[in-house]
Amino acid sequence: MSDSSANDHALSTRGLNKSFGSLVVASDINLNLPNGVRYALIGPNGAGKTTLINLITGVLRPDAGRIILGADDITAQAPEQRVRLGLVRTHQINSLFPHLTALESVTLAVCERRRVAQTWWRGLSTYRSEIDEAYDILSALTLAPVCNRLTRALAYGQQRLLEIALALAAKPKVLLLDEPAAGVPREESRELFAAIAGLSRDITVLFIEHDMDLVFRFASRVIVMVGGRVLLEGTPAEIAADPRVRAVYLGKTRSEAVS
């Protein structure tokens, strides 16, 4: 089913609700993410951020409401169907192929998207077009110099970039990143987010992040969640200056510093 009112948005939600018994984890969430925008999703622990991502990706089913990808209502679609339609996520904890090289890993993901992974046994050299696409993805994320290194030998920040490369191999229209810098040293995390910022503007990015320096540096808009609700949405400057955000999340000193 299509929704013409959502054509100008890469991703929208309408009246999204989810409860576990008496615990409300998502309450009347309405979002409109324009094409190509970099959104940060922030809020205190337990605010419902990962729950919202799980609802959007189909890991959880909403009790009420709709999820619209472009012009398509995907509320009833299975997670793998949403991936094929262009909605792709990464997780807080990466799940990579430690015994493959970075290039082999991304090539395998490209083969999976192109539906030729079942003939992987023929050998990597058979898939020149897939290899070229995988190398281009790795290059865009500054991983070309280590593309022939085993995944387990990569620095942790490089592993997180590789996870994003695997997501990009699925040709996403919307990319959801759940704490992509979790566990990454500060200097590496800045490099990681610089690579994210440099992604094609054909891709809309929504990322969860607790490091406010990264949020205010790389997000063009910020969504603040508290108690399963969207408290407000705005530019980083608007979010930093809002007294409600100071009260529930940023803290007065921090918000004054970035306003």
Explain this structure.
The protein is about 35% helix and about 25% strand. It has 10 helices and 10 strands. About 40% of the residues are buried.
- The helix/strand series, from N terminus to C terminus, equals EEEHEEHEHHHEHEHEEHHH
* DSSP helix fraction: 25-40%
Q: Label the overall shape.
A: globular
Based on secondary structure, the structural category is alpha/beta
> What's the Cα radius of gyration?
19 Å
Low-confidence stretches: 1-6, 252-259
Biggest sheet strand order reads: 6-7-8-3-9-10
Distance N to C terminus: 43 Å
Mean pLDDT: 88
How is this structure best summarized?
36% of the residues lie in helices and 24% in strands. It is an alpha/beta fold and 259 residues long.
Present the secondary structure layout.
Elements: E1 9-20, E2 23-34, E3 38-42, H1 49-57, E4 64-69, E5 72-73, H2 79-85, E6 87-90, H3 102-113, H4 128-140, H5 156-168, E7 174-178, H6 186-197, E8 204-208, H7 212-218, E9 221-226, E10 229-234, H8 236-241, H9 243-250, H10 252-258
Parallel strand pairs: 3-8, 3-9, 6-7, 7-8
Antiparallel strand pairs: 1-2, 1-4, 4-5, 9-10
Helix pairs in contact: 3-4, 3-5, 5-6, 9-10
